[in-house]
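User: quick one, sequence for these tokens?
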């Protein structure tokens, strides 16, 4: 990547971090409040006014600074651009946690160019915790408004040494891979469903060894790959390919990736 490209990415990442915080503040106005109204989308997944208002704010902030950039968001679709950069937005990743009053939801922002995810932010508003990264610029971890410090994955070399997390256990069964979940659970020292973007944040900061999702959308995945790579880990699909377009995801510290892939590869879908 050229110096000019690095500078263009760095200025976008700076906006992504501040925009994620601003969107997170919008969600906190509704978090654990009785007036949150839950609607159902066409796929029966929940959505609230907090999701929509947070994404609208993100879109406005992005287009004010980078009007030539494209945007893809979970709630309001796609805006075309001409710059070569596309912002991928999930205003509340973990809406089910959000509406349940559980603080493990996050704001996800990914920045893609040339089909590759180059920068990402995972911000967890209710915990005041954020990780962000851009290719070649390191991964950074902020807690409770403190100074950024390097985010690094765990040095453990076996699942038996630590934590495996996932978003929803029955999603393995939905793709015919319940056995894969059982094998991962047996292999790991600890298993928890601290999932969605928060699970990948745990991997990037060395607290979990692996996070596995059987079913993902682009806005769930785009922010994760650059963060995990820059933190020293990996983000792949279930076949081990470095992609955010696979409709599934594995985030690891890199050292346990082969162990996880030995479990997931038998369940790779023909189309993936």
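Assistant:
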């Amino acid at each position: 990547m050229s110096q000019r490209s690095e500078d263009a990415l760095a200025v976008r990442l700076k906006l992504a971090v501040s925009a994620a915080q601003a969107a997170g503040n919008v969600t906190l106005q509704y978090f654990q409040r009785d007036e949150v109204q839950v609607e159902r989308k066409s796929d029966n997944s929940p959505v609230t006014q907090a999701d929509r208002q947070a994404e609208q704010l993100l879109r406005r902030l992005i287009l004010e600074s980078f009007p030539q950039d494209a945007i893809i968001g979970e709630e309001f679709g796609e805006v075309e651009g001409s710059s070569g950069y596309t912002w991928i937005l999930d205003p509340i990743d973990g809406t089910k946690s959000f509406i349940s009053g559980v603080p493990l939801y996050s704001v996800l922002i990914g920045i893609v160019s040339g089909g590759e995810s180059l920068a990402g932010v995972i911000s967890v508003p209710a915990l005041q915790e954020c990780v962000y990264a851009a290719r070649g610029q390191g991964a950074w971890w902020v807690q409770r408004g403190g100074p950024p410090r390097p985010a690094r994955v765990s040095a453990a070399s076996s699942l038996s040494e630590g934590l495996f997390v996932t978003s929803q256990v029955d999603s393995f069964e939905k793709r015919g891979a319940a056995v894969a979940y059982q094998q991962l659970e047996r292999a790991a020292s600890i298993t928890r469903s601290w999932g969605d973007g928060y699970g990948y944040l745990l991997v990037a900061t060395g607290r979990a060894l692996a996070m596995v999702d059987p079913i993902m959308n682009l806005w769930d995945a785009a922010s994760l790959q650059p963060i995990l790579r820059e933190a020293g880990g990996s983000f792949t699909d279930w076949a081990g390919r470095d992609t955010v377009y696979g409709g599934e995801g594995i985030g690891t510290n890199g050292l346990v990736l082969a162990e996880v892939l030995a479990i997931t590869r038998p369940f790779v879908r023909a189309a993936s």
